[in-house]
Amino acid sequence: MSKKIIFDGGYLAHRTKSIPFFRNLVVKEKRVGLAFGIMNTIKKYINEGYEDFAVAWDKGFASHRREILDSYKSSRKEAIKSSISAEEWGFTETFLGFFGIKQYYHPELEADDVMGYFAKQTQESLYIFTVDKDLYQLVSDKVSILHPEKGLIDDSGVVAEFGVAPKEIPKMLAIAGDRVDDIKGIEGIGYKTASKYINKGLPSLTERQQGLIVDNGDVIDRNLKLTKLKTDIEPLEIKYNKNLDEFERLINEYEMLSLKELVEDDEQPSITDFVR
């Protein structure tokens, strides 16, 4: 069985652009830092033995979640949009496509939901490259989080970090909130208290904490609609024909020479069929 990675495209782009070299890289008047940086990350995991790769992009940005909470992910969306031009996005998608990297999106939902679809469908081990807490709900016997700093996180790792099983992550975030996604939880209730309530019920909390939970049931219900991922969807593929000659031409033209080993190796990784 192959070792499959699906990358959280928004996080991967943000992480790449946080590195000054890639953020500012311009060659022949073209910004190529995003494409170069992302392929460097993929090359790292090719060298570690991973074989099948896909990227989930945000394109629809979950209009249904914005209808529930208009401030949902507003700060994150604007930060990413303002730092990367449409031209650089397009070049990056084309560059990855020429190497054979599968790319998926949904016109009305988020990359998180796309990754949720693949997590639900996979029949073999799948690794999700992300740091987002909401994606921890997808961890199972077949699915692990591939955290760039913490390494692999399985179901026991989720429990160790948050005190709840993966399936309870949406409820924990609904109660305590998720600052990264601009979801406001119950003021005065953090992850530790939320996990205690989820595992042991109201009697395990102080009288004040019980009151906060009971009085804010509508907040919890609303937030659950935001934190629970939709996995019963059908993602769309951004289709490119794999073309290593064009990939190599772009490497040479835009001086991304550290990637040349990807086209010079005798045995190319079999990345053209990202199995659902």
From TrEMBL:
Domain 5'-3' exonuclease: start-end pairs: 3-239
GO MF annotation list: 5'-3' exonuclease activity; 5'-flap endonuclease activity; DNA binding
GO biological process: DNA replication, Okazaki fragment processing
Domain of life: Archaea
Keywords of this entry: Hydrolase, Nuclease
Name assigned to this protein: 5'-3' exonuclease domain-containing protein
Species for this entry: candidate division MSBL1 archaeon SCGC-AAA382A20
Classification lineage: Archaea, Methanobacteriati, Methanobacteriota, candidate division MSBL1
